[in-house]
Amino acid sequence: MTEIKQTIDGNAWWFILSEGKIVALDRGDYIPFGTISDLPFPNGLIDNKVLLGQYQNSPCYLIEVEANLDVGLGEYVTLRSLLGNVADKLFDMAGRAFQIALFYKTHQFCGQCGQKMQRIDWEIAMKCYHCQHRAYPRVSPCIIVAIRHKKKILLALHNRHQNAERPMYTTLAGFTEAGETLEACVEREVFEEVGIKIKNIQYVSSQPWPFPHSLMMGFIADYDSGEIQVDPNELIEAHWYDIDDLPVIPRHGTIARKLIEKTLKRCR
């Protein structure tokens, strides 16, 4: 991580977390921004701040507080509620805040010897001074893929979306296994979830996905062979949809939406 001078004399972005939620304003960029003297922080609030990086040339700090502490700013909202409502890079920084907070919470003790871990003050890491083991935030690589077949796109209803008022249909995704290439993972996940073979696999882009600590690698591909056979452990249903007759699809700001839109353009 590039070192950033930890000065709080000027303006800064403040990512204040509590109980899985983040403090957001109802105006502007949503994330609190300003100097300590400008913002009504309670005494001692910033004592345990963690430098996350920079956004628009200003430092970004993580502060985790006790359950729903009133910090005099905005209200607590879910991270997902910011998706599509704030700039992509600001959302990524908010996601980073959640991932770092989770890392500190889940790495209190050494996984090698069991002793208490300590924070390192010059990078995001925890160290055991008993056995010298050092731990860094976990990142879980995942693939996500949109598949084209002539003038249609494959969309699926995942188990986690079935109870929504307006169920959302999206692309296929899955975690990369140890020793597996991303392309091999794409082929495996598609075959496991819907029973078809694909070809012309192309990488598009990636997106940090802090639910809780994934890195989504996005692909597009073409249908090759087979009939859809849904894995009920993963999906409720999956179908080929005409590009002009789509169900509810993911919101803007998600890599799934980006892959779907790219595939639709290829179909026209």
Structure notes:
The protein has three helices and 16 strands. The chain has helices at 88-106, 182-194, 255-267; strands spanning 12-18, 21-24, 33-34, 50-55, 58-64, 75-77, 118-119, 126-127, 134-135, 140-149, 152-158, 169-170, 172-175, 197-209, 214-225, 235-242. It is α+β, with helices and mostly antiparallel strands.
Helix/sheet category: alpha+beta
- What separation lies between the terminal Cα atoms? 43 Å
What is the name of the CATH topology of the largest domain?
Answer: Nucleoside Triphosphate Pyrophosphohydrolase
Order of helices and strands: EEEEEEHEEEEEEEHEEEH
By CATH, the superfamily of the largest domain comes out as Nucleoside Triphosphate Pyrophosphohydrolase
Shape: globular
Q: How many domain regions?
A: 3
CATH architecture of the largest domain: Alpha-Beta Complex
Beta-strand fraction estimate: 25-35%
What's the level 1 CATH class of the largest domain?
Answer: Alpha Beta
Provide the gyration radius in Å: 21 Å
Helix content: 10-25%
Largest sheet: number of strands, sense, barrel closure: 7 strands, mixed
Count of individual helical segments: 3
How many DSSP-defined strands?
A: 16
Query: What number is the mean pLDDT?
Result: 91
Low-confidence runs of at least 5 consecutive residues: 1-7
